[in-house]
Specification:
Helix content: 25-40%
Strand content: 35-45%
Distance between the termini: 67 Å
Radius of gyration: 34 Å
Largest sheet: 7 strands, antiparallel
Bound molecules: 2-acetamido-2-deoxy-beta-D-glucopyranose
Number of helices: 9
Length: 495
């Protein structure tokens, strides 16, 4: 009985430590990996065509003396990589495979033979390395700071160049072409021995250093930043899934936001290249920071009131409109100022059919006296509840919100006989007529979802669950990416 009990406790403990809370989660599916390997091949081709290969020189002792040779102006004339792929290795990491690869080089050769009769000769050469196969497995984990780690051992790499052909031109090359197959064999052996060592070394030094310095915090505003460090090692099955902290903090103050982090249910979806599950915790931690850094403060004077709302902040007119005679009596014909500030962080809650948002704040009213000092009038507490539908327009996240409720409550007043009913009606009307349309104007333009260098989202889809939204999308190569990004930024500015 006791053993049984301990067993359960251990299982529960393991269970709770495994279910690491994560603000957002991302997944790359096999089609996404195929896309990424195409991106990689495209980049590799660009890089290799621009690559400069260092001049080679050396010396060799032959029977009649020492040959000093140099190979210069070496460049790639052709590079083919007919098949390349990135795939997952379950519980280990990623495997890069390429086969049928071939590369052609052209350059100049020259040699000097230091013997009793000095001889020198020069010409050009072509090298064709073909039937190349390369496999590298990169073991991927996470370090204590939440950055990924990479590692490859000698068992993780295989390289084989099936064929090396050399042709020399110029000089007495007809002579050397007689033994070029010997040189070719030597090059082939060297490649087959050296390439994996070089690749593994690259992974364990350059690549390891690069990922160890990866950014895990990004600035959002001058006061807020998002921490997207990994909370656990990436998981590899047929897909690659990463879990991120996804919390927004005040810069220099990493106090945790006091909200429950929703659990993202396991979901085997592989129908798109990439997926992202974003919990409402991310939005709420942002609201928490914005509230604590005093972001939502806004003072309304008459010039900020849309004329079409027909709201006058002139005390005489306001008093008549809202049945507060005392106001006109105390401060006739003066202008008022309304200081808005949120008193609680705005709260977002996502459910399968909608996104609800609640904003609660104070409206403190003052009158601007003839000598420009403010006299306090009253404070109202306002609560506005919205519900929104999220969607996508091209690569931008859009929203369309609708009114749920708006309420006003009198907190304090320096004015007697204050009746709030008419004010409440006007507030509700203003929310429906001005505030929500304004929010929806921004929502119709949307917020561009980050995409990268020349690649755009294709057919992004958004679905909601309890506490999270799930975004799935394919990616495409888009040569007009730059132009599109510019016009989106312009649209943003116009709103
Ligand atoms: C950090 O933020 C928390 C929550 O907003 C706040 O209570 C605390 O005073 C802040 N600490 C500093 C040093 O600013
Ligand atoms: C709003 O007005 C108050 C004075 O009533 C002032 O202290 C505050 O700085 C103003 N806030 C903003 C955001 O302009
Ligand atoms: C306020 O409204 C009254 C009545 O419409 C008008 O006579 C007065 O000039 C206005 N005062 C200001 C400061 O605009
Ligand atoms: C917001 O309003 C409340 C109530 O009027 C007030 O106590 C608080 O100081 C205000 N906060 C800011 C940052 O103005
Ligand atoms: C501004 O005018 C009001 C009302 O006339 C008065 O009570 C207040 O003392 C004046 N303030 C200053 C700084 O002159
Ligand atoms: C937003 O939703 C309302 C109904 O709630 C609908 O009438 C309106 O057409 C929608 N607007 C957009 C841009 O989808």
């Amino acid at each position: 009985m006791a053993m049984y009990h301990i067993f359960i406790v251990i299982i529960l403990f393991l269970g709770s430590s495994l279910a690491v809370k994560t603000g957002f989660q991302a997944r790359i599916t096999p089609t996404g990996l195929r896309f990424l390997s195409d991106v990689g091949v495209r980049k590799l081709k660009e890089e290799i065509s621009k690559a400069t290969i260092p001049d080679q020189s050396g010396s060799a002792d032959v029977v009649i003396g020492t040959i000093r040779y140099s190979l210069t102006n070496i460049h790639v004339t052709r590079f083919d990589i007919p098949s390349a792929s990135i795939s997952t290795v379950t519980d280990v990491g990623l495997k890069v495979s390429a086969s049928g690869l071939s590369i052609s080089l052209h350059g100049d050769w020259r040699y000097k033979l230091d013997s009793f009769i000095p001889v020198s000769d020069s010409g050009s050469f072509d090298v064709w390395i073909s039937d190349v196969t390369l496999y590298v497995t990169i073991e991927i984990g996470v370090d204590a700071t939440g950055r990924p780690t990479v590692y490859s051992s000698s068992n993780d790499c295989a390289f084989y160049a099936g064929r090396v052909d050399i042709t020399l031109h110029g000089g007495a090359s007809w002579l050397y072409n007689l033994f070029d197959s010997e040189i070719a064999d030597k090059i082939q052996d060297t490649l087959n021995h050296q390439v994996c060592q070089t690749v593994i070394n690259e992974v364990n030094t350059d690549l390891a250093e690069e990922v160890a310095n990866i950014q895990i915090v990004a600035s959002i505003t001058d006061k807020a930043e998002i921490d997207y460090s990994l909370v656990t090692s990436p998981t590899f099955d047929v897909t690659l899934t990463t879990s991120h902290k996804g919390e927004i903090y005040q810069k220099g103050n990493h106090t945790e936001a006091p909200y429950e982090i929703p659990t993202i249910p396991s979901d085997p979806d592989q129908s798109k290249m990439v997926f992202m599950w974003m919990t409402d915790y991310v939005a709420n931690s942002a609201g928490y920071v914005l509230q604590n850094t005093g972001f939502f403060q806004y003072n309304v004077t008459q010039d900020k009131v849309p004329p079409s709302s027909k709201i006058s902040l002139n005390t005489s007119e306001f008093a008549v409109e809202f049945l507060i005679p005392q106001l006109a009596k105390l401060y006739p014909d003066m202008m008022m100022q309304l200081n808005l500030n949120t008193t609680q962080p705005p709260l977002v809650s996502i459910t399968p059919d909608k996104v609800g948002a609640t904003v609660t704040g104070d409206v403190a009213a003052y009158v601007i006296q003839p000598n420009n000092t403010l006299a306090y009038l009253f404070t109202l507490e306002a609560t506005l509840k919205l519900s929104a539908k999220l969607g996508f327009k091209q690569s931008s996240l859009t929203w369309n919100s609708s009114y749920v409720s708006a309420d006003l409550r009198l907190l304090r007043t320096a004015i007697k006989d204050f009746k709030i009913d008419k004010l409440r009606l006007k507030f509700q009307l203003a929310c429906k007529m001005f505030i929500i349309p304004k929010i929806n104007d921004m929502g119709a333009a949307g917020v561009p979802v980050p995409s990268f260098d020349k690649y755009s989202l294709q057919n992004p889809e958004l679905t909601q669950g309890k506490g999270f939204v799930k975004i799935g999308t394919d990616m495409v190569y888009d040569p007009l990416w730059e132009t599109r990004a510019k016009s989106r930024r312009q649209q943003q500015k116009d709103v």
